[in-house]
Amino acid sequence: MHWSSLSDFIRMGGYGFYIWGSYGVTFVLLSGEVLMLLKRRRAVARIVPEPKVETRSAKFETAMASDKL
Amino acid sequence: MSTRRVNWYKYAAPANFYPLAGKMIPFFTVVTVLLFIIGLYVGFFVAPTDFQQGESYRIIFIHVPAAWMGMFLYVLMAVYAGLGWAFNARLGSMMATAISTTGAVFTFISLVTGSLWGKPAWGVYWVWDARMTSTLILMFLYIGFISLQASIDDPRRADRAGAVLALVGLINVPIIYFSVQWWNTLHQGATFTARSFKMAPSMLWAMLILLAACWMYSIAVVLVRVRCIIREREREAPWLAEAVA
Questions:
Q1: Which of A5, B1, B107, B242 is exposed most, by the fewest CB atoms within 10 A?
Q2: Chain B residues with beta carbon closer than 8 angstroms to that of A33
Q3: Is the Cα torsion angle A61, A65, A67, A68 positive or negative in sign?
Q4: Comparing B234 with B139, which gets the higher pLDDT?
Q5: Does residue A1 form part of some domain?
Q6: Contacts of B112 in chain A (CB under 8 A)
Q7: Chain segment B123-180, per-residue pLDDT in tens
Q8: Quick check: is A31 in a domain?
Q9: What 3 state SS string does chain B have?
Q10: Is the Cβ pair A12, B55 closer than 8 Å?
Q11: With an 8 Å Cβ cutoff, is A18 touching chain B?
């Protein structure tokens, strides 16, 4: 550990603005992408509900597993 | 005993890929969170202060992975777009569309973090250096791909137009990669060279773990997005319509 205190950690040897700016922008953009995506998923779910019935391929998988084929 | 062969073509069908993608998302989400925590811990608490650049070098832990992701995802997007076009495989085109947003986000992050690193290192936020200019062009290619697709109503026509743009723009990727060798640039040379690792092992690890975190993040986000696209586009298809009913 090379940080003697929290303020030392925040200062980052005088480069705090650049370092926290970089990580801040990254965090905001990635979490923004995730939030927008979850919003889109909710919007899609209103139009096309999540398929709940077992699809044909899933039935096929089950049959394969139980050696019925 | 029957030998079971994996039929890869099976998962080219959205109806089969949709549930598979759904099963994979929780795994990639958990791994993403873990890798980001570990990578940031190593980057801020294990990696030592650089003797030349002081603490400012810690920006590269996120800058280099973001820049790589911008390039990797562009190649992946172009390959999927090309497959979707050449084999008329609509899932390929949907994957390309799903990747484009994430690729643009990482390219933007690499440009912003790069200039935040450039200011203390070079004294300027931006110069028209070969690598930076070609990365900016990459950003414009992503924006072009996204807006071109958004401007065409028929999805399959939008897919084909996007594929042409993505494949032509592919020429930019080697230009970015080799720019530091071909031209005299202000941007430093490749971070990795086969002969020497100039960095301390913990610095290298911080960067590699965050690169892995960015990969896992991209996979998780792209899978969620491609499932949205599948549901939007295939809502009339029997497999979805039946399942809904």
A1: B1
A2: 101-102, 105, 221
A3: negative
A4: B139
A5: no
A6: 22, 25
A7: 899 989 899 999 999 999 999 999 999 999 999 999 999 999 999 999 999 999 998 8
A8: yes
A9: CCCCCCCHHHHHCHHHHHHHHHHHHHHHHHHHHHHHHHHHHHHHHHCCCECCCEHHHHHHHHHHHHHHHHHHHHHHHHHHHHHHHHCCCHHHHHHHHHHHHHHHHHHHHHHHHHHHHHHHHHCCCCCCCHHHHHHHHHHHHHHHHHHHHHHCCCHHHHHHHHHHHHHHHCCHHHHHHHHHHHCCCCCCCCCCCCCCCCCCHHHHHHHHHHHHHHHHHHHHHHHHHHHHHHHHHCCCCHHHHHHHC
A10: yes
A11: yes
| Rounded-to-integer distance, Cα B48 and Cα B73, Å | 31
Condensed to tens digits (0 to 9), the pLDDT of residues B39-67 reads 999 999 999 888 778 888 899 999 999 99
Own/partner pairs, A56-60, CB within 8 angstroms, 24+ separation: A56/B15, A56/B239, A57/B10, A57/B13, A57/B15, A57/B16, A57/B19, A58/B19
**CA-based nearest residue to B105, from B143, B148, B137:** B143
Number of domains present in the structure of chain A: 1
B98: closest chain A residue by CA: A37
Rounded distance between C-alpha atoms, residue B152 and residue B122, angstroms: 43
Closest to B240 (Cβ–Cβ): which among A34, A40, A51?
A51
Chain B nearest C-alpha distance from A11 (Å): 10
Q: Where are the domains of chain B?
A: 59-189
CB B172 within 8 A of CB B141: yes
